[in-house]
Design a protein that fits this description.
It is a single chain. This protein is mostly helical and about 60 residues long. It has one domain. It contains 3 helices and no strands. The longest helix has 23 residues, at about 40-64. The protein starts with 11 loop residues before the first helix and ends with a helix.
């Protein structure tokens, strides 16, 4: 549960912005979306490997 102490006289938009930022950091929404469908472990590994290759290539290009 996320607790957001709101100071007296604090703008409600600012408090809402803080709450949204805190909520995003918890990763609840990301977890919920990932649980909507099942992906096979082999597919997850393949995607992770392709991502690692992509990142590695980006790093190599950046060094040159």
């Amino acid at each position: 549960m996320i607790i957001m102490p709101v100071k007296e006289g604090e703008n409600i938009e600012r408090a809402l912005k803080k709450f949204k930022r805190k909520y995003e950091k918890t990763g609840v929404l990301k977890e919920l979306r990932s649980r909507q469908y099942f992906t096979k472990p082999s597919v997850e590994k393949r995607v992770a490997k392709l991502h690692a290759i992509y990142v590695e290539n980006m790093m190599r290009e950046e060094e040159e």
